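note to self: dont lose this again. the chain is below, predicted strucutre after it. 305 aa total, dont forget to put it in the shared folder this time
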Amino acid sequence: DGKWKVVIGSGFDKKGMIFLYSSDNLINWKYEGVLFEIEENLGRMIECPDFFYLGEKSVLIFSVNEPEKQVQGVFYCIGNIQNKRFIPERMEKVDFGTDYYAAQTFMNKEGRRIIIAWMQHPTNEHIPTQKEGWAGIMTLPREIVLSHDRLFFKPIKELEQLRRESLCSLKEVPIDSEENLTLGKVQKNSFEVLGELEIFSKEASLLLYNEASESVKVNFKDEEVLIDTTKAGIGKGGKSSVKIGKRKRIMFRLFIDSSSMELFLNNEKVGSYRIYPCFIYNKIRFSGKLKVNSFEIYSLENIWI
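---
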């Protein structure tokens, strides 16, 4: 309507709310009302809202941090605007990991909607980066895709430019119970893992570890994927899970960096984690009855150089 609009996260009467303001000149602002609110049991405060259009749908992304209610993280709602109110049709978590917050989006010159968030658990103390004066890191940029009234998140295609050399390559490898691999070419915790697994047993897992017993585990069980970073290195780490439905074939991309891990599943779900290994993850263990259709590990270039 020719006016500037801003959404502001807040809370009122024990309910998380998002207020809408408008302006003709970006200086003087008029309160337009409550754009959106959540129930008390979901949170008393909404932070870092982001409203945008994707296709013909309205999308609202916001963060909630209510550990006592066991509601933490970033959520998205798909819906429509009616009488200056956002009416949600679907609400889901953006990221199923333990360290993802304050996500914001922008549209690039190609018209793709890109999302970046703050990666740091607000209650995670006594970690090396905090002692060094850092307040978390940013996630890898992800592209948001709207399909069947759901949002899907995938790594932006530009990240492929960071790949240097292949450190490991497997194709059509059947595994009956367990298989261990040593990654002799891995020189530092900065690599990308691409894989497609076909799982035949009720449970299977992928363990990335080293001689110092530091490890991160991705467990495929029934219709869930469970991630365990409690032995990843310094700090407590955490556990989380996500439902993926009945699927025998699972595609994934795993990005490991010096103090982070980001796991993408089937270009749909993604989990973000802070990890603090003291040593290089240079071993992999496949467990369960499965077939490794494809498996590739690339070392990654430093993005700052």
